[in-house]
Amino acid sequence: MSVQPTIAILGGGVAGMSCALWLKNLGFKPIILEKNTCLGGQLTTLSTINLWVLGFSQHTSQQLADIYSQHIQSTDISVYYSCQLLEIQQNRLGFQMVIQKNTLSPETLSIKALIIATGARPLGYEVIENIEGFTPELISNRVFFSPTDHLKQLPHLSAKTIAILGGGDNAHYTAKDIAATADKIHLIMRSSATAQTLIRDDISTLIQQNKIIEHAHATITRIYPVQNKIALKLTQSGGLNQTLFVDKIFIRCGFTANTEFLKNSELLTHVATDKHYILTDKVKRTNIPGIYAIGDVTNSDDPSVVNALAEGALAARDVSQHLN
Ligand SMILES: Cc1cc2nc3c(=O)[nH]c(=O)nc-3n(C[C@H](O)[C@H](O)[C@H](O)COP(=O)(O)OP(=O)(O)OC[C@H]3O[C@@H](n4cnc5c(N)ncnc54)[C@H](O)[C@@H]3O)c2cc1C
To answer: CB of 230 closer than 6 A to ligand 1?
Structure first.
């Protein structure tokens, strides 16, 4: 019996799990290397119903993560948790990589291909840390960074004035969720709104009702505490300056790809990226033969479960057609 070629998948979110399943069914030995202690990636953080996955109309994203994770665990696909990639080098047969699980001694793996599926994360602290006047003490239960953390805050927002930073879908959904509870919402965006039409229409109605005040083309030039409020000094296009006094701030300024690890290995520093997102062709090959990238780490425009699932399948198919 011939030896099944080993393929390493870095990242055990939905993209990595999908790719592992396809690779297994195509006759490979996939190994998922996950830095956390569980599979599922971003889905594990989302407790709301996911309306976008055909056939799962009543499931939360967390429930989807459980279903996908249980599927992988019901197979013989190996998953290394708390695992990091220390080094990777190309050789005649593919790649030699050094990994470390937990605090155990580093381990060397020979692999035929590497699939990068490390996903993305919300931009957070970096959005405000360089604003004049900012100090970490300002944050304490007043500044929130994760896309759904306002849900837990809802009982505490009554009669409060809230600032939301960002003009995309997450900023708009946050504004809609808290509009029923908060007294006033300032939606502050660097350019103009980019949210999908349906949620944008809802927010436009709330703007007309004066529940939400939109500050487009606005920059926060100073942030500082005033009694029990936070002051935000805004400069808007046209030279308009004003200071807002708010109780809490929700930061919804988009995402960035998890690609910091590329700089740990000489070979991976040559992977082509654009604004931290990995560039690929349509079957998810990077510019380095034998290295693929799938899911949110390649996709700043249309991140979604179904795209991540499909990209895992595309890369696996290409591996089977060209690297077997
Ligand atoms: C607030 C919010 C709401 C959303 N709502 C929906 C929705 O309703 N419907 C929908 O379809 N999509 C939704 N999405 C998008 C969807 O969650 C993502 O597109 C999808 O989960 C991306 O999967 P992924 O596997 O590419 O990445 P991720 O889920 O980010 O997984 C990446 C994995 O890689 C691991 N990792 C990272 N770096 C390393 C490393 N160096 N070494 C090893 N492992 C690493 C991470 O721990 C993680 O497990 C939403 C996203 C957010 C943030």
So the answer is: no
